[in-house]
Structure formats: structure tokens, C-alpha cells
Specification:
heterodimer; A: three-stranded parallel beta sheet; globular; B: alpha/beta; five-stranded mixed beta sheet; 8 strands
Chain lengths: 91, 170
């Protein structure tokens, strides 16, 4: 429900004239709620930026979000080229 | 530059409807609210000149702010204003529908406030917003999120003259 709540707020912020981007760990919900820009992170809930105390990992995710802001010309949903390494389910 | 490919959307709408039906069975008051006629706003200026805000539904609040209500199935569509100069060690994460242990070890996992400041230092973005927004995403009924919470966040971001918002779920 975090994804739906943040997606509904995102839609309102975007419609008010402020560009937005989000990270999605549940792409089905983010897709269904219909947001302007989203990036799917194959990470577990609770870790949209990555693992604790991994600042370079966090920066990779943020840089991808910034790149999406700079390049998207219409509503866009992309996949981040990163994987979660410590949990087999997410490999 | 990353190679950001569009996701394969096949089946996502069906998965979303299955989730909506699941939520409707599990909780009263659920309804299939979405962003009707979704907007797209282009950047108005380069990111290096933009003021950026963080908005998270990961249940983030400061230790002296009222925790979000997670004791009922009613949800909580209130928000907490998080000043940009906050002490990250005072952040708390009140949310019972995701594992908050990573956020408790390092708030940047869901609320990348230190990373945002590093992006300012590097000149990648122009400035951090003076305020950010903490919310709690467990809201079985999305109506007050869209009708009450979202307009408040919109006003808050415009008052702070924010150019870009990064939205982070929990």
C-alpha cells in the first residue's frame, strides 16, 4: 500500500507542476496507480535505495532516478540495472 | 549513463487488479483509486539548478513528532514535515507493513537525506528543499490519501519552492 499511497501523492504533485520520480519494488502496483516516472528496483521492501551503509549503492539508484528525470519525454517506467545480492529470491 | 530500458508491462495490469481484489477482501473501505488522466510535467530547469525534495511513505518521522497510527486497520493519512537540517539519528520509522530494520540501521535506505546533501555538494542538484515529507503508506482506503493528504503535500512543496520531488515507498 506504500506504493499506492506514494503513487497517488506523486500524481497530484506532478499535476501541480512539479516533476516527480519514484522507485518501485512492486511494479504492478506502481503501474496500476499510473505515475509519471518510475524505476523498478528488484530490491526487498524496506530497501528502495539499497542496503544500509552502502552510500555508493544509494548513489547509483539516485543517479538513475535523476537520469530518468532528465531523459523522459513522456510517462516512463524503466528497470534499474541493479540486483539484490544477498537474498536469493531477488537474484 | 545507465541503460534504462522500459519494463515489460505484460501482465502488470492483471497483477494490479488481483492486488486490489486482495486488499478489498482483507480491508473495509478499499477502493480502486488511481491517478485518473495522469500528468507529465517536464523539468523546468537543469537539475544542477533545481531544488529537490524527498517524500517517503516509509513511516518516517522525528523522535519528538507523533508516531503514525499503525494500531488499527484505518491507516493514517497524516504527514510529518521533516526539516532538511534534521539530525538523521533522530529519525524513526513507524510502519508495520514492511521490515523497518534496514531503515533503522541507516535511514538513507528509505529516506536518502545524506545522499541528497552529497548530491548538492557534488553540484549534481542545485539545492535540497528546506523541508521534506514523511508519510505512512498503509492506507487501505486510498480516498483520504488522494483527497486530503496529497493536496497538503502539494501546498507544502510549492511553499518551499521545490522544483523536483523524489518519491520513495517503504
Amino acid at each position: 500500500m506504500c506504493h499506492r499511497s506514494v503513487g497517488l501523492v506523486q500524481g497530484a504533485v506532478e499535476a501541480s507542476g512539479i516533476p516527480t520520480v519514484t522507485i518501485a519494488m512492486r511494479p504492478d502496483i506502481t503501474y496500476g496507480v499510473r505515475v509519471p516516472r518510475a524505476a523498478w528496483a528488484r530490491f526487498p521492501h524496506g530497501n528502495p535505495l539499497g542496503e544500509p551503509h552502502q552510500p555508493e549503492q544509494h548513489h547509483l539508484v539516485l543517479e538513475a532516478l535523476l537520469q530518468l528525470l532528465e531523459t523522459a519525454e513522456d510517462r516512463s517506467f524503466v528497470e534499474l540495472p541493479f540486483r539484490w545480492r544477498r537474498w536469493k529470491k531477488w537474484l | 549513463m545507465f541503460d534504462l530500458q522500459p519494463i515489460d508491462t505484460e501482465g502488470l495490469q492483471e497483477q494490479y487488479h488481483e492486488w486490489i481484489e486482495f486488499i478489498a477482501r482483507a480491508h473495509e473501505g478499499s477502493n480502486p483509486r488511481v491517478n485518473e488522466d495522469p500528468a507529465f510535467t517536464p523539468l523546468s530547469k537543469p537539475l544542477s539548478a533545481s531544488r529537490v525534495a524527498l517524500c517517503t511513505t516509509a513511516g518516517a518521522h522525528l523522535d519528538d513528532q507523533e508516531p503514525f497510527n499503525v494500531l488499527t486497520h484505518d491507516g493514517d493519512h497524516t504527514h510529518r514535515v521533516l526539516p532538511d537540517d534534521l539530525d538523521p539519528s533522530r529519525l524513526r520509522f513507524t510502519h508495520t507493513h514492511y521490515d523497518t530494520s534496514s531503515a533503522e540501521q541507516d535511514p538513507n535506505c528509505v529516506f536518502p537525506i545524506d545522499r541528497l546533501h552529497e548530491l548538492v555538494e557534488r553540484g549534481r542538484i542545485g539545492a535540497a528543499s528546506p523541508v521534506h515529507v514523511g508519510m505512512m503508506g498503509f492506507n487501505p482506503d486510498p480516498s483520504p490519501v488522494q483527497d486530503v493528504l496529497a493536496p497538503k503535500v502539494v501546498d507544502l512543496l510549492h511553499d518551499a519552492e521545490v522544483d523536483v520531488a523524489i518519491m520513495v515507498p517503504g
